[in-house]
Amino acid sequence: MKNINPGDFVELIFPNKSYKGILLESPKDEKGVILLKLDSGYNIGFKKKDISEIRLIKKAEKKEEKIEIKIPQEKPKIAMIITGGTIASKLDTKTGAVSPLTKPEEFFKFYPKIFDKVSLEKIIVPFTKASEDMDFKDWKKIAKITYNLLNNKEIKGVIITHGTDTLHYTASALSFFLQNLNKPVILTYSQRSIDRASSDANLNLQCSALASISDIAEVLLVGHATMNDDFCFAILGTKARKLHTSRRDAFKSVNRKPIAKIWPDKIEILSEHKLRNEKNKVKLDAKFNNKVALIKFYPGQNPDILEFYHKNKYEGLVIEATGLGHVSSLSKNSFLKKIKKLTKDGIIVCVTSQCIYGRVDPYVYSNGRELEKAGAIFLEDMLSETAFVKLGWILGHKEWKKNKQIIKQKMLTNFAGEINERLDEQFHSL
Questions:
Q1: Among 77, 90, 239, 242, which one carries the catalytic annotation?
Q2: Structural domain includes residue 342
Q3: 195 near 110, Cβ under 8 Å?
Q4: What is the predicted pLDDT for the residue at 201?
Q5: Is 166 in the same domain as 269?
Q6: Does residue 66 form part of some domain?
Q7: 242: annotated active-site residue
Q8: Quick check: is 50 catalytic?
Q9: Residue 186 forms beta bridges with which residues?
Q10: What is the full DSSP assignment across 55-71?
């Protein structure tokens, strides 16, 4: 393999077929194996002895010591917060996985089209994390940075790049933490790393740039609406959910229409939203009580799990129940007695549905009625992840915690579009 190195785009020739992809570094203990990253994103290994020829198609780009990015000054100014995730990563030819970019200049080298519509006033990298490693402290940090940027009169909007796996949690947190919003706050992502031909990042960023200078004063998640590179949806932060592990259009708007349909050069408004009003004084309300938990009910589940949270002084639970909001109530594993004990001792218990679409309703079956009598709060059509974040936010307010009725009232108050009286049937599938 003279002049062929890890990172090069190659073709492996076999007697009856061939494979093209990026050559990866083989593990030290597997010298007889050739590893290739296919364009689909999957890594595949071949026995070296079975390969007839390794043909070089394209050399990997050499590392640049200095990257200069020309940022236009005459266009509307925005700010960007880079937090990590696939959108801020590139292929690691040693592992076949992705590794974080080392500096913002690298990011814009791969995404120059973002400057077609906007200029960058400020770039902040508070941390680089996979989103599954983030927690409420990170949400608070992002909210505080966003709050300060929104108060800068030069900045027309804020884009936050983020990993996909817990993006909808962060979107919900910012929706509650940032009150009286005056400008767009856009969260975006990519499912495939920037150095792959099939990366979804460019379209997502171009659409996010246009959304960030629009008149939509909401926390929005912006990303591919379809598998193709045609347009994006702008989804309300409290109504977004990741519904596919790897597709470009992984995120969907649940129980309501997206706010807008966005192309790189135009926006079509689809539903009601708050309007840009730069006279608004944004309020930062980033209180959060992390003694909350999200529990998924399953058939035959032992209700003793609730004792763990009681013993460890948790103050709120969201139970993701079945159907209209049901847990076992008649079998030996009935949850009712335990829930009565929790609510009596001051622990807030809320109910959402595993069904994703639709709403919970305690009045259709006796099971639901008994659960409500036990003190559980049924959260309408609220998404489970949104409910978890909202409960932590509500319980973070000492003045609200004093009275259970106030907590219930707040949980059923529509702060950021998390409760929708009228469900949109049109957006019920991928």
A1: 242
A2: yes
A3: yes
A4: 82
A5: yes
A6: no
A7: yes
A8: no
A9: 159, 220
A10: EEEEPPPPPPS------
